[in-house]
Amino acid sequence: MKYPILLTALFAGSFFMANAQTAKPEDTETWTPIPKVVTPGKTCGDAPSDAIILFDGKNLDEWVQNNDKSPAKWDVHDGILTVNKNYGNIETKRTFTNYQLHIEWRVPADIEGSGQGRGNSGIFLASLGKGDAGYELQVLDSYNNKTYVNGMAGSLYKQAIPLANPGKKPGEWQTYDVVWTAPAFNEDGSVKTPAKATVFFNGVVVENGFELFGPTLYIGKPVYQKHGASPIKLQAHGDKSKPLSFRNIWIREI
Ligand code: MG
């Protein structure tokens, strides 16, 4: 029985040799579409050449109040933007679908309070209307400040616990870099693909392609509802602690 096995082996060997001769490296090379050339910023926080600048320290031209779409009334001073809790949330004039977002935030050095009442704000990666409707990436002082882990800085509020806590002390600037993929819906309103978020917090990955269960809810379980392109919204949280500040906000559509 050894002879037929040898013949089979010889036949198989010649087949693979013939196949290797026909297959070429070019067969598996992809040449188009050519990715756009983009000049990166000098440091990782600087906006690259194709970014839309949402806040550069000068004005709130890209923003409106969330409740009535009037000009945004938060405080711009010394190149930074500070939450004004008297006026509520603000949101971008523009709407977005899939994007890369950079935003920097700072909890006041003399922050008081505890848990969710200590430097609370938030970035609604897609606003779905007034108030806190949307998908919230939590902003909170998470430096020695105990709270539920799916509500700390870097969490997708009440849905995804951050993979690490790279939070800095109050008074220091912190960064979020977010890759957001909006949910897609079928004609009948059912979910085709859920929303997905990757988040770097101070350069550390804290959410890795997390698929959201739906828009953020304070109480209850999230449920998707069909929507299109949405503004990005910043939260004026109702807690009594001193308001946070933001700076250097830019976005690249994907
Ligand atoms: Mg919040």
Structure description:
With 254 residues, the chain is mainly beta. The chain is 8% helix and 30% strand. It starts with a helix and ends with a strand. Magnesium ion is lined by residues 120-122, 136, 138-139, 235, 237.
Question: What is the strand and helix layout of this fold?
Answer:
Blueprint: H1 2-22, E1 52-55, E2 63-65, E3 75-77, E4 80-82, E5 90-92, E6 99-106, E7 121-127, E8 134-139, E9 173-181, E10 184-185, E11 191-193, E12 196-201, E13 204-211, E14 233-234, E15 245-253
The structure holds magnesium ion (MG).
Uncertain regions spanning at least 5 consecutive residues: 1-16
Number of strands: 15
What is the CA–CA distance across the termini?
62 Å
CATH fold-level assignment: Jelly Rolls
| CATH class call | Mainly Beta
**Ions and ligands:** magnesium ion
Q: What order do the SSEs take from the amino end to the carboxyl end, as H and E?
A: HEEEEEEEEEEEEEEE
The oligomeric status of these chains comes to: single chain
Tell me the number of helical segments per DSSP (H or I, 4 or more residues long): 1
Number of domains: 1
Brief digest:
This protein is mostly beta strands and 254 residues long. It has one helix at residues 2-22, and strands at 52-55, 63-65, 75-77, 80-82, 90-92, 99-106, 121-127, 134-139, 173-181, 184-185, 191-193, 196-201, 204-211, 233-234, 245-253.
